[in-house]
Amino acid sequence: MKRAWQIMCVAFIAVSALTILFSFGYPYEDKLGFGPAFFPVWLSLITGALALALFIQTTWGESVVDLSATLLPDRQGLWRIFLILIALLGCLALLEPLGFRITLFLFLLALPMGLGAGNWWVTLVIAVAGSFGVFHVFYYLLKVPLPVGMFGI
Amino acid sequence: MDALQYWIQGFSVATMPMNLLYAFIGCILGTLIGVLPGLGPAAGTAILIPVTFSLDPIGGIIMLAAIYYGAMYGGTITSVLVNVPGEAASVITCLDGFQMAKQGRGGPALGIAAIGSFIGGTFATFSLMVVSLPLATLALRFGPPEVFALLVVGLSLVTGLSGRSLLAALIMTLFGLLLSMIGMDPVRGAPRFTLSIPALYDGVGFIPVVMGLFGVGEILLSMEKPVLEIIKTKLTDLLPKAKEWKLSAGAIGRGTIIGFFLGLIPGIGSIIPTFLAYVVEKKVSKHPEKFGTGVIEGVAAPETANNSYANAAMVPLLTLGIPGSPTLAVLMGAFIIHGLTPGPFLFKEHPNVVWGLIASLYLGNLILLVLNLPLVGFWAKLLEIRYQFLYPGILLFCVLGAYSLNQSVFDVGIMIGFGVLGYIFRKIDWPLAPTVLALILGPMMERNLRTALEMSGGDLSILVTRPISAGLLIVAAVVLLTPAVRLVGKRAGKDEGG
User: Fold this and answer.
1) Which of A130-134, B92-96, B227-231 has the highest mean pLDDT?
2) CA distance B341 to B349
3) pLDDT below 70 — which residues of chain A?
4) Which of A28, A62, A77, B131 is disulfide-compatible with A37, CB 3.0–4.6 A?
5) Angle of helix B166-180 relative to helix B433-455, nearest 10 degrees?
């Protein structure tokens, strides 16, 4: 866990450095007063300083990190998390080309089965209701704009 | 118009049949969100914003507010029956609520929680009616330095009271502020940090970020160990016995007061009131050693404080435009989506919305009581849905909610990205609430600071020479420095002790 805190501190130092770098592209001051770079520059400087302080505290100071905690889940847990992320990324890629109904139908079919739902028929019914049913309620009844794909579905 | 006329106007709006229906639907959806594991009130409220798109602003806000306090109550059910708090404020309820369920007294535990929530919520709503108008009038006198200082206080409280490390909490606050810099500069109106991506011209979407951090992140965490052990308890005798009433009465009274006063402080969050109510109850009890073994006061006090807080926290949101928790920040986002800006001007420009909303809180509390006592068994049944179907179902609504705000796949990507970040931050125990609040308050903070500095010709002393802003900044400094001073004192004591 200590290593994770250190990595996070380094990441925030990098974020603050990048923000300062990008801020050079905007005026710090103009004739009206402080410009668009004023606030981000100071925020980044403080963020970088605090992240450095936390890095030093985590590495050499009195630890506030829960050393007994484990960072990674067991193999099954990791697999489930991986499946969910793949399914979400699939959704992201297919949502506009295939439309909400087909994409979410595939999502609701594949993800439960991947997670070990077992019963194909129940999964199929839930996938149809969850994709086509939800689309109908939100698109037609609640007038919520949802994507319709290349097949017109 | 005087206060009484506003109240009457509010009730006439809230009792319109459609608004009553929206409050009713909101209570049901909110309780559902609270009950379902893996979906907290912040993400749940965010996901359901699209449901209100086709409604008029007042109807939409009434429904979302009902979702908010419905979710606050719904979290109790999982705390008692599964030992998993539906939301952070219900953590303390697990201690005695779950023990009561194990002893077959889950019914009275849920019953007293519902009744306490009703009493606490109703008292807080009445007080909200009384204090909001004078407070909003006072807030109208605030200039940019005072507003900036007030925002600093709000963020300091969220930061100072969250997480195991103050430094980590501060970094998370600054992270939220940095994210809020993306988009249009709030003073000059020029694009900033957008990387020439058109979708970023309006900034990083607040709602997709909340859905990611609190919705997707929570689900990813739940997937590590997704199976819940549900206690089979008798849920028929919901009303506590005479002796339990006697024990609970004082706890409900104290919880109401604690929740209300802490709710008035912007940024305090919902965890502190519930913990404080529990601690106070333990202190005043003749049998403090029994706390944690299933005493009814251990459920009544925090649950009452929770709902009292939830209603009182509307005061800083409505009068000052400062949300006290991530869920209220979502509600603030919903106001903005519906073309309304929370703050003192809302009372002037849209009195029907404000007073209609406040009046609907009364009715919502009543609906929750009537709805939840008979339906406890039904809510408990929902906990038996298999995670293989439940979590994909929740994710479906996350995708729908994120996309439909701007009809943008980019927002879905933002949600997934922040979901991963949310998971990582939870794993390493860095607080998320400061990031969310800073993200929504950032533009307001920057605008007021820069305007204040323009007023003073760039002289920072304007923040400390005006009495109100100076006072507020002192409060912020005390909040942030107290833990550091305590730590130094502790170390000095250790060194002396050898």
Assistant:
1) A130-134
2) 10
3) 63, 67-68
4) A28
5) 60
What is the maximum alpha-carbon separation in chain A?
Answer: 69
pLDDT at B490 over 80: no
Which of helix, strand or coil describes residue B119? helix
- What is the DSSP track for B71-91? HHHHHHHHHHHHS--SSGGGH
Pair B33, B44: CB distance under 8 Å: yes
B412 in reach of chain A (CB within 8 A): yes
Q: Is the CB of residue B432 less than 8 Å from the CB of residue B326?
A: yes
A108/B454 touch (CB, cutoff 8 Å), yes or no: no
Q: Which of B165, B400, B412 sits opposite A54 (nearest CB)?
A: B165
Cα separation, B52 vs B74, whole angstroms? 21
Q: Which residues of A touch B486 (CB under 8 A)?
A: none
Q: What is the pLDDT of residues B446-481, one digit of tens each?
A: 999 999 998 888 888 999 999 999 999 999 898 888
Whether the per-residue pLDDT at B11 is higher than 80: the answer is: yes
Q: For residues B400 and B331, what is the distance between their CA atoms, to the nearest angstrom?
A: 18
Residue B314 is predicted with a pLDDT of 87
Length of chain B: 498
Torsion from C-alpha of B394, B395, B397, B401, nearest 10 degrees: 140
**pLDDT given at position B319:** 87
> What is this model's ipTM?
0.94
CA distances for B12 relative to A79, B1, B364, angstroms? 54, 15, 15
Residues 35-74 of B with CB under 8 A from A: 50-51, 53-54
Which residue of B148, B385, B395 to mutate against A (max A Cβ within 10 Å)? Answer: B395
Burial group, residue A25, by CB count within 10 angstroms (0-12, 13-18, 19+): exposed
Contact B26, B62 (CB under 8 A): yes
Say yes or no to pLDDT of B498 above 50. no
